[in-house]
Each structure stands twice: as C-alpha cells, then as structure tokens.
Specification:
With 194 residues, the chain is of the alpha/beta class. The protein has 7 helices and 5 strands; from the N terminus they run βααβαβααβαβα. It has a 5-stranded parallel sheet with strand order 2-1-3-4-5, with helices on both faces. The longest helix has 28 residues.
C-alpha cells in the first residue's frame, strides 16, 4: 500500500532481540505483520544490546547516514534506568536524538520506558515522567511503555526477567502494530506532499 517505506528501529537489546532466534525480534515480527497486511515496508533493526541514550546519541548520525530511513521507532532508556543514570541527562539525550530525526525530516514513533523498582519510588517517578513530557512537548506519535503487558510477567520473559521471550516479543509487536501503521501513514503523507 503506497510508496515503499523504510523504518529505522533504533534501540537497545529490546529492539535487537537479545536472546531470541532470528526472525523473533520485535522489528522482525512487525515487518512480517505489515507485509501480511499489504504494506511495502522494510524495517532496519538498529538495536544494540546494552545501549544507553548516551550511546544511542553517539551512533545515531552514522546510522542515519547508512540506513537513510523514511521513518523511525525510537526505543531507548531502559539501560539508563538499570544503571541509575540521571533522568535529566537521559531527557537531554533523547531530545538531541529527536532533533536529529527532525533535521532529516524523519517522523518518529517514540516509545516510553519505566525504571526497575529497585532504585526507589522517587527515581522511578522522575524517570518515567521524562517520556510523556517529551512526547507532549514535541507532539510525537507516542507509545507510553514499550514493555506494556510483558514487563514483570515471568511467562513472557527470559530467565533474566528483563528481556522478553519469543511470546513476549510477539505481544509487544502486536501492541505496537497500530502505532506503526499510523507512522507509515504519516510518512506516506509527507512523501506525497514532497
């Protein structure tokens, strides 16, 4: 349907598909779902396990140059939370990445994250507030919690309790799917407008 669209899935191990077999990552499942529904879409998996927003910001310019995407899914922040990084620095990094996407006229599906409870309630609240604040300030297409319905559920995660298993990844992809369709439609409108 419509012109071909290349989507950059830019994130950490949750995007990369850590511990999963080929074809089981969230971007792989999304691409299959989209193809099955007639969308001419290629999803480039630029997930890098262990990446923080600082690492993501450092590698984004050359990733954009190499992949030349029409649209992007931005999923970063989980490792900042695991490491107890300053949420204000994470917010600055995310905004800098979103600035880069904007400079390249690349529409973004922005996904939120929550911190693990072991760092205390005050940190978890400060951390979680970053994502909706950015989304509102920038009027972004926003999926509030990447691990919605999967995080903290043993049956949907690998033994480490952090990374989704194949069933968990399928559920995340299913949840994200309508948002990705919105992203594609927005991208195609921009392409048509020239």
């Amino acid at each position: 349907m419509g012109d071909p669209v290349t989507i950059l899935a830019f994130g950490d191990s949750l995007t990369a598909g850590y511990g999963l077999n080929p074809g089981e990552s969230v971007p792989d499942i999304l691409q299959t779902m989209l193809h099955d529904n007639g969308y001419n879409v290629t999803i480039v998996n630029a997930g890098y396990s262990g990446d923080t927003t600082t690492g993501g910001l450092a590698r984004l310019p050359w990733t954009l140059d190499r992949s030349q995407p029409d649209a992007a899914i931005l999923e970063l922040g989980a490792n900042d939370g695991l490491q107890g990084q300053d949420p204000a620095q994470m917010e600055a990094n995310l905004n800098a990445m979103l600035d880069l996407f904007q400079q390249h006229s690349i529409p973004v599906l922005f996904t939120g994250m929550q911190a693990m409870p072991n760092l205390g309630e005050a940190y978890a609240q400060e951390f979680a507030a970053v994502f909706p604040r950015i989304a509102e300030q920038r009027d972004l297409l926003f999926y509030p919690f990447f691990l919605e319905g999967v995080g903290g559920i043993p049956a949907l995660n690998q033994a480490d309790g952090i990374h989704p298993n194949a069933e968990g990844a399928r559920l995340i992809a299913k949840n994200l799917y309508p948002y990705v369709v919105q992203l594609i439609e927005k991208t195609q409108r921009l392409q048509e407008a020239g």
